[in-house]
Design a protein that fits this description.
heterotrimer; A alpha+beta; B alpha/beta; C alpha/beta; B: alpha/beta; 2 domains; three-stranded antiparallel β-sheet; 28% helix; C: alpha/beta; Rossmann fold; 12 helices; globular
Chain lengths: 361, 280, 292
């Protein structure tokens, strides 16, 4: 027979990988440090979505794949899954944060003060063409003064709890679920939900939060507090339970948002004799956390967290919907898998369509 | 890949956990066993479930065949074979009769499996009920109660509205009269191969984190009304232009030069052997 | 025989029914934990306890349904009539009470205590439900045939052509043309949607039919057709029917006996003619006299 079967897949793959390198077209080398320092907020995003705090490796991942965010998150996550877990750190409490920024939208003034810190919020979005000539963005600033001491401040939400307006959280000591090694079940327990949201794709989470605020949900939240700062990572000293070793510090952004919530008063016998109230207003909250300074990610997370505790038909109130579809690797993997050959099942579909057509003849 | 990686990439603890899930799956044919799916250097949706199964069961003496759409040469199959090869150094083959482990996407080879062979299928959506119910919480309950009316209703609806059942591939099957399962996107043509097979079928969904199995000599029946027989794809009057085979699943192709339409065996290994035998 | 009983016997075609099909005892549905005050007191204003706020949607209801009868359940909105019906169909969880069905486990098993699977069996095979809002009872985007077949499938049937024949038979019995069986109910008028619901409810020849305000919201002429249909169904299929309505005219037309509900309590029950012609309770009197 004159015909030859189509072959050569392996050769094609090798050539494709070579082409990748050619397309990178890098005239100058960009150092990993430069990416880490000059594109720090992009590095922060990669770390959050990979669930691994490792700025150097996140920067490396970005360098390796043309700045492709999905690929970088993938690289970092895949690397994380090869690492052995030797220790668990002691619990980190955000109230111990060494603050670089701390604001509250709920009050004009707060104990400890509103500390604006480094933020783009008040900058004018004008392209700075002077940066084109190789100038660094930091060149025109004066020396930043180091504060003479660390700024630490109590939480706004703790004030509300003391007042009784915000329900306290009960001490909960069960071991958290580890979503990296256990299948997410529904409904999810709180630790599983928060971990999943913290690692969720920023765009997806932002969209869900936006929809919740615009009416496809139940919330109109106020940010009680947004705080960014450094927290120490400590492990218990192996030879003395009462001692801690500080391994280092990481930069975190934490958000607590609050909203009024109508709550059915619980029907307890102690309410006998009191005036009935069926729709008591309480404050309910949501919690958000991101590595680095990605504030919108942390804010979105807190909005979605609060919203998932309400009941309704919108996607933002459907926990299964939100938790399953926000994972960057699974989302992008499944979407990009459509590029794989599907001609066998497509042939089967053609068969069905053709059969249907035959009936009309 | 440097030598810092374990044999078959995954650490022994992970392999053991996955093997336990596989054993549970074999004990309950057709039941989806949840497992802690690991991240791999290959993307989710690109076969990580199947790969994790293969990596967990493969040993130094195994012979591996990897196909996609039936072809050993398909880019995805080549890529997976490369990855597994690099971290195990096992022998590979294109001959489905010689392989001890066959990892496949979307097809079952034409030659029936023998005792001792394992076919690992890559699965995108493991739950057959997903088509009629988006919530995992609900479908889990339905499987537990063998509540499959929603599935039957969609078949009934197809027959009523179109006179045909419109499910093309991923046709749901009843396993040992207990669980309905999704055989992965194999064409209906291949469904019968699962029934009463000598070999073992394992199904891995990495992204959805489920493993299920069809052990040898298991009853696997495509869902069909008693009076409307199950129909497979029709290749009547068509044959492979390379080896002449009929009664096999064929790829419809259009020549890149002339644009004319022709057919070739989807199972390239099978086709090669036919042609090899002819030339001897 | 006294006059009312003679009339009654005439009404049901001469059969004196004595066989109970369904029996409810002490059915209570409550939202909230209750307190000393409301747990002991009888009627509360508007079913709500002024002390603890608990809502008593239905309180200690005792109901018997006899073979072949149409039992009317009348009351205003908030009286508990829908709660009664839908609890029977397991749509709501009850607080306490028992219900037995004669032909289910010899009438010795409280169906509220059965497993999910048993409840499903009872719903599919022994009961049929027609909701006031067709959206609750039908899948609007599936064909009419599919909707009815859903019940047949749930009862375990697996032969396509006989099922389709049965679907056609059922559609026929509610005066829906065969040609429309492939269409989705969202294309149908309100009256037609109710008729699809009725035919679906009858699919597995249940012995009990639950009709919840099925004519409310329909035009008078359409109402008349549906009411006629219900009468015909009782005659042809021999089902026992629980008929909820706030409309006394409908009750008078169809129900053999009637129960009157007020704020979750049954305040009066008896032969329909007696209740409507000679109401004993003040509320019933008020209800009847408001009918012009």
């Amino acid at each position: 027979m004159a015909y030859v079967a189509v072959k050569g897949g392996e050769v094609a793959i090798e050539a494709s990988i070579e082409l990748l390198k050619t397309f990178q077209n890098a005239a100058t080398d960009i150092s990993v440090n430069a990416i880490r320092d000059n594109l720090s907020m992009l590095v922060d995003k990669i770390m959050s979505e990979a669930g691994l705090y490792a700025p150097d490796y996140a920067a490396l991942a970005l360098k390796q794949c043309d700045g492709n965010v999905e690929e970088a998150v993938f690289l970092l996550r895949a690397y994380r899954s090869t690492l052995e877990r030797n220790h668990y750190s002691n619990e980190i409490n955000g109230k111990d944060m060494r603050l670089i920024r701390r604001i509250s939208s709920a009050f004009k003034d707060i104990p400890g003060g509103q500390i604006l810190g480094p933020t783009y919020d008040y900058s004018h979005r004008l392209l700075d063409f002077s940066l084109l000539d190789g100038n660094l963005p930091t060149e025109n600033t004066e020396d930043v003064l180091e504060p003479s001491q660390d700024i630490v401040s109590e939480r706004i939400s703790d004030i509300f709890r003391a007042e009784g307006v915000l329900k306290g959280c009960e001490q909960e000591d069960t071991t958290p679920t580890d979503v990296t090694s256990h299948l997410l079940t529904h409904p999810a327990d709180r630790s599983a939900r928060l971990q999943t949201l913290a690692r969720a794709d920023g765009g997806f989470l932002g969209g869900v939060a936006y929809s919740a605020m615009r009416g496809y949900g139940a919330v109109h939240p106020t940010i009680a507090e947004l705080r960014s700062g450094y927290v120490d990572i400590c492990v218990t000293y192996p030879f003395d339970e009462n001692e801690e070793i500080v391994l280092g510090e990481i930069l975190l952004t934490e958000v607590e948002s609050l909203m009024p919530k109508a709550e059915e008063q619980s029907f307890q016998d102690e309410n006998v004799g009191k005036a009935p109230s069926y729709d008591k207003m309480t404050l309910s909250g949501g919690y958000g956390l991101a590595f680095g300074r990605n504030e919108n990610k942390a804010i979105s997370m807190s909005i979605v967290d609060a919203n998932l505790d309400t009941v309704g038909d919108t996607p933002s109130q459907d926990e299964e919907f939100v938790l399953i579809h926000g994972d960057s690797l699974e989302m992008n993997g499944f979407i990009s898998h459509l590029k794989l050959p599907h001609y066998v099942s497509f042939q089967s579909s053609l068969d069905v369509v053709r059969k249907s057509g035959e009936k009309d003849e | 890949m440097n030598n810092d990686y374990n044999f078959a990439f995954l650490d022994e603890g992970s392999k053991r956990e996955i093997r336990r899930s596989i054993l549970k799956a074999i004990s309950i044919p057709g039941y989806q066993v949840p497992f802690g799916s690991r991240e791999l250097p290959i993307g989710r949706g690109w076969g990580t479930g199947g790969i994790q199964i293969t990596l967990s069961i493969i040993g130094k003496d195994d012979v591996l065949k990897v196909i996609d759409q039936g072809s050993d040469d398909s880019v995805n199959a080549v890529n997976i074979k490369k990855f597994v090869g690099r971290c195990t150094n096992v022998a590979t083959t294109t001959d489905s009769e010689v392989a001890t482990i066959i990892q496949s996407r979307h097809r079952i080879p034409e030659t029936p499996l023998k005792d001792g062979q394992i076919l690992v299928l890559q699965v995108p959506i493991p739950d057959p009920l997903r088509a009629v119910e988006p919530s995992e919480r609900v479908t889990k309950q339905k499987h537990a109660e063998a509540e499959y009316s929603a599935m039957w209703l969609s078949l009934y609806e197809d027959l009523t509205k179109f006179g045909e059942i419109n499910i093309s591939s991923e046709y749901p099957c009843m396993v040992e009269n207990r669980y309905v399962m999704n055989p992965s996107p194999i064409p209906r043509f291949d469904n019968h191969k699962l029934h009463n097979s000598e070999g073992l079928y394992l199904f891995g969904a990495g992204r959805e984190k489920k493993i299920y199995a069809i052990p040898p000599y298991t009853s696997v029946i495509p869902l069909a009304f008693d009076d409307v027989p199950f129909k497979v794809e029709n290749f009547e009057g068509k044959h492979c232009r390379l080896c002449g085979a009929t009664g096999v699943y064929l790829d419809e192709m259009y020549s890149s030069d002339t644009g004319e339409k022709f057919y070739e065996c989807s199972d390239t290994g099978f086709c090669e052997k036919n042609r090899g035998a002819n030339h001897e | 025989m006294s006059a009312p009983i003679r009339d009654f016997a005439k009404r049901i075609g001469g059969q004196i029914m004595n066989k109970k099909v369904l029996s409810i005892r002490g059915l209570t549905v409550r939202y909230g934990n209750g307190c000393a005050h409301c747990k002991s007191s009888g009627t509360l204003t508007k079913n709500r306890c002024p002390i603890c706020g608990t809502v008593w949607a239905l309180r200690h209801a005792d109901v018997d349904l006899y073979q072949g009868e149409i039992l009317g359940i009348v009351g205003e909105s908030g009286s508990g009539k829908s709660t009664l019906m839908r609890s029977l169909y397991f749509d709501f969880d009850i607080t306490s009470g028992a219900c037995t069905i004669e032909n289910y486990k010899d009438g010795k098993q409280n169906i509220f205590k059965e497993s999910m699977q048993q409840k499903r069996y009872i719903k599919n095979n022994l009961m049929g439900m027609v909701y006031q809002n067709p959206v609750l009872g039908l899948r609007m985007n599936y064909s009419a045939a599919g909707n009815i077949a859903e019940k047949l499938i749930a009862a375990g049937r697996r032969e396509f052509h006989p099922m389709t024949d049965r679907v056609k038979e059922l559609l026929n019995s509610v005066d829906i043309l065969e040609e429309r069986m492939k269409e989705p109910p969202k294309n149908f008028s309100g009256g037609m949607q109710q008729r699809v619901q009725i035919s679906k409810a009858l699919a597995n020849n249940p012995e009990i039919l639950l009709l919840d305000e099925v004519t409310t919201g329909l035009d008078l002429s359409v109402q008349a057709k549906v009411l006629d249909l219900i009468r015909r169904i009782r005659r042809d299929f021999g089902v026992s029917i629980l008929l909820v309505s706030h409309d006394l005219a409908v009750i008078r037309m169809l129900a053999d006996r009637t129960i009157v509900l007020l704020d979750g309590n049954i305040i009066e029950q008896g032969l329909t003619d007696q209740i409507l012609d000679d109401p004993q309770h003040a509320y019933t009197q008020q209800l009847v006299h408001s009918l012009i």
